[in-house]
Amino acid sequence: MKMNLVAPCMLGVEGLVANELRFMGAENVQPENGRVNFQGDFNMLARTNLCSRYSERILIEMGKFTAKTFEQLFQNVKNMSWEQWIGKNDRFPVKGRSLNSQLSSVPACQKIIKKAIVERLKSKYHVQWLEETGDLFQIQFLIMKDKVSIMIDTSGNGLHKRGYRAVSTDAPIKETLASTMADLSHVHNGDIVVDPFCGSGTILVESALKALNIAPNKNRDFSFKHWRMIDENIWKQELDNALSQEKTNRDFRAVGYDIDPHAIDVALSNCKKAGVGDIITFEKRDIRDFSCDFEQCKVITNPPYGERLLDIEQAKNIYRIMGEKFFKKQGYTYTVISPDEEFEVLFGRKADKRRKLYNGMIKCQVYLYFR
Question: Residue 247, Cβ neighbours under 10 Å: how many?
Answer without folding.
Answer: 14
